[in-house]
Amino acid sequence: MRLELVTIGDELLLGFTVDTNAAYMARELAGIGVEIVRRATCGDDPEAIAEAVGDALKRTGAVITTGGLGPTSDDRTKESIAALFGRGMRLDEEILQRLEERWAARFKQPLPAPNRQQAMIPEGAEILTNRHGSAPGIWLEDDAGRWVAMLPGVPREMRGMLGDELIPRLTARLGATAVVRSATLRTTGIAESLLAEQLGDVARGVDGLPLAYLPGHDGVDLRLTARGLPADAAERALDTGIAALREKTGRFAYATGSEDLAEVVLDLCRAKGLTIATGESCTGGMLGERLTAIPGSSDVVVGGVIAYSNEIKTALLGVDADLIATHGAVSEPVARAMAEGARDRLGASIGVGITGIAGPGGATPGKPVGTVDLAIAGPWPTEARRVQLIGDREEIRYRASQGALNMIRLRLDS
After folding, report:
1. DSSP string covering 35-63, please?
2. Domains in the chain, ordered, with CATH?
3. Which member of 146, 196, 247, 404 has the lowest number of beta carbons within 10 Å of its beta carbon?
4. For residue 50, what are the contacts with CB-CB under 8 A and spacing of at least 6?
5. What tens digit of pLDDT does each residue of 343-385 get?
6. What is the distance in angstroms between the CA of the first residue and the CA of the last residue of the chain?
7. DSSP state, 226?
8. How far is CA 129 from the centre of its chain?
9. Residue 313 and residue 281 in contact, taking contact as beta carbons nearer than 8 Å
10. How far is Cα 96 from Cα 110, in angstroms, rounded to an integer?
11. DSSP category for residue 117
12. Strand pairing of 276-280 and 350-356?
């Protein structure tokens, strides 16, 4: 099956909202063997919607749209697409009743008049039930088999309806078919070019599966893709390919799929009965945030100190003021002292110290923006290392937290 995606909304064209819907749909639909041949974005103007969807129908006869199903005056998707099919609009009394009941239960007031628009449905359309919000989805098809599936633009609602309603419908139409599946191996601590060199004979792919390099703040993800195979064969090929990549990448590989390094570290600590405390300067609590964002982290994370000023480094982490005066706040000795102070004062097994210059100001001779000192203290001799990180302030802070997590991983995984 070949189809096109059209995402609708002025906010997308203006850049105020990032279009995550198209990327999510493309991934999910590829998994059932649907080929996305084109993606387009248009504004809320009815003529623009009609043109984008009409052109897509001429090419493939199958279109999914997101956006423009809400209650406000700029939500014009339904009538614009209905006109392409020569259909009028009708009030669906069942949808209207559900909307009225929803408003009475959730907001204790009558349904506002503008929301009645959400119960207006193109004649001859099928309803795609929205269990995640108020706007119903719509399936509109003509006698020639051309169809448009309209989903809400709210990501949470779109994702839920895609899984609940649209994928089962498309799967039934497809029957037994080849799929497009991908698998990802996550690496960190090695540059993309060096990683390619280390991969050697599998640098371009494994057993016919093409390999993509996806560098980011976390490191470099390696993604293999299987096309044109039945689902079971695709999964077996990907499992074999990922195993081959993991063997080549060695300790630079830390996870598969989308697993965050913080989750990996928490699992390692949990398996060994260890706890973590943090002492952060330039990252401003980002390391602690990443750790505590993982459900169940309370059995590992003791707490942390955001020691931005030298006075707090001394008062709360016990860093000797003379040490700061001699070596500077951004130095390996101070990072070591911060890690040991976090461990000892918060009563954790492992202490982490991070101090650096995130920019854009603050550079000094010999310490440019991106200079970060990391340290981990635990039931081993305290380790420290200096790294020179690239990027803007946010990227440097994130890469510093990633570097600290990787130090813990490498120590615990040895």
Report:
1. EEEEEEEE-S-HHHHHHHHHHHHHHHSEE
2. 2-174 (3.40.980.10), 179-256 (3.30.70.2860), 261-412 (3.90.950.20)
3. 247
4. 80, 81, 83, 84
5. 999 999 999 999 999 999 999 999 999 999 999 999 999 999 9
6. 48
7. E
8. 26
9. yes
10. 12
11. G
12. parallel
The model's pLDDT over 14-50, given as tens digits with 9 standing for 90+, comes to: 999 999 999 999 989 988 889 899 999 999 999 999 9
**pTM for the predicted model, two decimal places:** 0.80
Task: Tell me the angle at which helices 167-174 and 20-30 cross, rounded to the nearest 10 degrees.
Answer: 30
Residues in the chain, how many?
Answer: 414
Distance, CA of 356 to CA of 364 (rounded, Å): 11
Dihedrals phi, psi of 179, to nearest 5 degrees: -125, 170
Helix, strand, coil share (%) of the chain residues, nearest 5: 45, 25, 30
Amino acid at position 384, single letter: A
- b/e map 114-136, b = 16+ CB within 10 Å: ebebbbbbbeebeebebebbbbb
- Encoded tokens for 403: 């570097």
Sign, Cα dihedral of 287, 292, 297, 301? positive
